[in-house]
Structures are given as structure tokens and as C-alpha cells.
Design brief:
Helix 2 crosses helix 10. The chain contains ten helices and eleven strands. Helix content is 42%, strand content 15%. The termini are far apart. The longest helix has 21 residues. The mean pLDDT is 97. Strands 1-11-8-7-5-6 form a six-stranded parallel sheet. Strands 3-2-4 form a three-stranded parallel sheet, sandwiched between helices. Strands 9-10 form a two-stranded antiparallel ribbon. With 284 residues, the protein is of the alpha/beta class. The structure holds guanine.
């Protein structure tokens, strides 16, 4: 039997509609959430992502203020802008789209953003709070992955979860969130030996390597849930993920497509974080 296709577009729309409703309620109290979106340079994929984030803000009733800076922007100039945005009480969230041009140190920028406005959950203070089990923003793509699994009706407790990839944006934080939900979690990466056998025992596999065909049918247990975070192009220029979708869907219980799986969830969870930021800052 072929797998259920987890519809990230539909689930993300549900979440955005929930955020829109809650934003309307907040507006009745005189608070309008506002996100500053900063893009440096000409990366075409980043331009598309940033545009989609601004469109989602419009949909949810969240104000977005856009800063599009040239490739030649100095690190000191970007730090100056962040300082200004940190101090501006009308701005609740600050998003600096990554990757940044090579002459700008991403860590310096992430550290400069006020943790209270860090709607990406990239600041070490928020990462630390997440890892020690406290309350903070949840990182957007990892939180979106959990929503996809849970809103599709699957429980994570006691499940064998395998994460392939150890990036700071996806691999490490999604492993932490799966652990928080009582999964038994294994993190694999490019140096892992016997990836095949580790995957074969998994109930849930999250693939975030950025490499096509990282996960093939022979590595998947019958009935496993497969989440594909990849965004690649095949020989024909068509978007595809890190999973051999056509073959893996024949053995999986449920699988996310690319596009239309994890991608839209990142933006929906960003909207949720902007709303939370505005709510929390209204108490200050
Ligand atoms: N680049 C790729 N994904 C992301 C993300 O979630 N947030 C930001 N700021 N940059 C990214």
C-alpha cells in the first residue's frame, strides 16, 4: 500500500488561519505584531523565501518591515541596523535571512539580535533554553516538522526516531524536539557508519542532508514515517528532496512531499513566533 502523503500546504494554512484569528484578537487590545525582515545581497532562493515570509505576514495581519541591503553591506552596518531594531519598541521580531554574504560573520549577527525578538530561535540563549527544557521560541523548521507529525495523528512517545543531518538550523534542534516529545532519538551524519541499519529500525526518519537520494527504499522499515527537509533540483531542474520519494512511498506509512511538505511549515511557525513575541512584549 502506498503511503499517506502529508500535506504541508494544508497544515500550514490551518496554522496561519489560527495565527490570523489570534492576531485579530490581539489587535482588539491595541497590539499589532510587527516583523522586521532583513535580506542582504542577491541570493535568488533567499529572495523567494523572504517574499513568502512577507506574504504570510500579510495573510496573518502581521505588519512586516523590509530591509533589503546591498551585497556590499559591511558587518558593522548590519550590526548597527540590528541595534536600532532591538531598541524599536514597535518591532516584535527580527529575522535576518541566512546565508549572509561571506564577509559577514553569521555568529556575530545572531548574537546581536535581542533574544526576545529572535523569532528564528538562533540565539544561543534561546537554543540553551530549548535544550534545558525551558519556555522559549521554538525553531521554525523543527517545530514545523513536529506539527506535521502530530497533526497527522502520529504520537512520538517511545518511537525510534532517526535524524540524518546535524545542522544548527534543522538536525540538532529537531532531535531535541523529538526527545522532548519522548522519542528515542539517534542523530546520524556524513561520518555515521551503517546508516542503512540505523534507519531500518526507525519508526520516524527526518532527512536533512541537502543531498538527493540520501534515503532509499531499502533503508526504510515498512510503516515508517518519513519527513524530507531537502530542497534540491534534479537533472531536469525539478524540485526534489533528500528522499527517493517515488520508491520510499511504497513502504512508508506517511511521507512529506517536496515541494509542499516541510517548506510551508517553516513560514507558518515563524508567524506563530511573531505572534508570541508581540504577546510577550506587551507584558513588559
Ligand atoms: N535560511 C534558511 N532557513 C532559514 C530560516 O529558517 N531562517 C533564516 N533567518 N534564514 C534561513
Amino acid at each position: 500500500m502506498s503511503a499517506k502523503i502529508i500535506d504541508g500546504k494544508a497544515i500550514s494554512l490551518d496554522i496561519k488561519q489560527e495565527v490570523k484569528k489570534q492576531t485579530e484578537q490581539l489587535k482588539q487590545k491595541g497590539i499589532t505584531p510587527c516583523l522586521a525582515v532583513v535580506l542582504v545581497g542577491e541570493d535568488s532562493a533567499s529572495k523567494v523565501y523572504v517574499n513568502n515570509k512577507k506574504k504570510a505576514c500579510d495573510f496573518c495581519g502581521i505588519t512586516s518591515i523590509s530591509y533589503e541591503l546591498p551585497e556590499s553591506t559591511k558587518e558593522s552596518e548590519l550590526l548597527e541596523l540590528i541595534k536600532k531594531l532591538n531598541q524599536d519598541k514597535s518591532i516584535n521580531g527580527i529575522l535576518v535571512q541566512l546565508p549572509l554574504p561571506k564577509h559577514i560573520n553569521e555568529n556575530h549577527i545572531i548574537l546581536a539580535i535581542s533574544p526576545q525578538k529572535d523569532v528564528d530561535c538562533f540565539h544561543p540563549q534561546n537554543v540553551g533554553t530549548l535544550y534545558t527544557g525551558g519556555k522559549c521560541f521554538l525553531p521554525c523548521t523543527p517545530a514545523g516538522i513536529l506539527e506535521l507529525i502530530q497533526r497527522s495523528g502520529y504520537d512520538i512517545t517511545a518511537k525510534e526516531c532517526v535524524v540524518i543531518g546535524r545542522s544548527n538550523i534543522v538536525g540538532k534542534p529537531v532531535a531535541m524536539l523529538l526527545l522532548r516529545e519522548n522519542g528515542t532519538v539517534t542523530i546520524c551524519h556524513s561520518k555515521t557508519k551503517n546508516l542503512h541499519d540505523i534507519c531500518k529500525r526507525a519508526d520516524i526518519i527526518v532527512v536533512a542532508t541537502g543531498k538527493r537520494n540520501t534515503l532509499t527504499r531499502d533503508m526504510v522499515k515498512q510503516g515508517a514515517i518519513i519527513i524530507d527537509v531537502g530542497m534540491n533540483r534534479n537533472e531536469e531542474g525539478k524540485l526534489c528532496g533528500d528522499v527517493d520519494f517515488e520508491n520510499v512511498k511504497e513502504v512508508a506509512r506517511a511521507i512529506t512531499p517536496v515541494p509542499g511538505g516541510v517548506g510551508p511549515m517553516t513560514i507558518a511557525m515563524l508567524m506563530k513566533n511573531c505572534l508570541t513575541a508581540a504577546e510577550l512584549q506587551s507584558y513588559c
